[in-house]
């Protein structure tokens, strides 16, 4: 064998090993989750926390969670600290209360705590590294676990997820309690998306508009920096290309919705009009329903409804200085889940444990798989 052939084989083998390692990190990484069962609680808690970080954007992958945490640190180290405190507080509270380990290990009690802590930091007028803010971030994160526990039995009657109801509820309670003139925890008042323009310039800057579509994905984590947002999108892509595609599609739809009703240009450019659309599109187009042409159309409809509802909620709640956060996507997705028509309800995924790609089957196939897995 010639030296050239040996070198070619070595490079081919290296590519195969790299590809194998990359594939190892895709999907929900159930193999890693299984290996973690015999590890000390401190090591398991790290995996649970990373899954909680990724669960904010409906992803269940610890490597994706690590990438997202890196992205948040690059965007704002202080925000990364606040989010981690909220995540840790909510997860530890769930452990102390004694919730099911299966749910905790999937990060189900962590993402609401992280979200509320991130938004507390975003609306704080005290600036970065205001250490007293760690106290409400910790308390609010723990409170989301209690709210989640209280809502679960009620929503289970209609087979509905708790989703981010705890985050939205606790954030509104915190901002309503502290207000904008609190001497210790002052907040910026939320601005309505439909506020009148300061000037009469109606020309759009297309590169900024396209950048806003991408930033709509990052705004799910209150991140408005392009580089970290691309890393967040890459983390979603690592878990599921379907979810990443629907995230960008939903954000783009949200931008179109904002353009159609002439929202503030800075909201378009920063991605604020896109993140609810992204959340609604991702939830219907892969997370809660198996993907086919019908559910894809419903995902687009959900993205439009979420975006328009967000603009309406923003204009109303901003009168009280409160943000609409992700109420629009949450309520719109609940509405889609309550639709009783066979065209949608027959494709509902009852137990989400895998990436959407593993559900690309006919309804009868994955129903049979669910039945057989329950019998084992």
TrEMBL record:
Its main location: membrane. It is found in: Cell membrane. GO terms for cellular component: plasma membrane. It catalyses: urea(in) = urea(out). It is a multi-pass membrane protein. The keyword Transmembrane helix applies. InterPro entries: Ammonium/urea_transptr, Urea_transporter. The keyword Plastid does not apply. One of its GO terms (molecular function) is urea transmembrane transporter activity. Keywords: Cell membrane, Membrane, Transmembrane, Transmembrane helix, Transport. The chain crosses the membrane at residues 52-72, 78-97, 109-126, 132-152, 230-249, 269-290, 297-318, 324-344. Belongs to the urea transporter family. This is Urea transporter. It comes from Pygocentrus nattereri (Red-bellied piranha). The lineage of its organism: Eukaryota, Metazoa, Chordata, Craniata, Vertebrata.
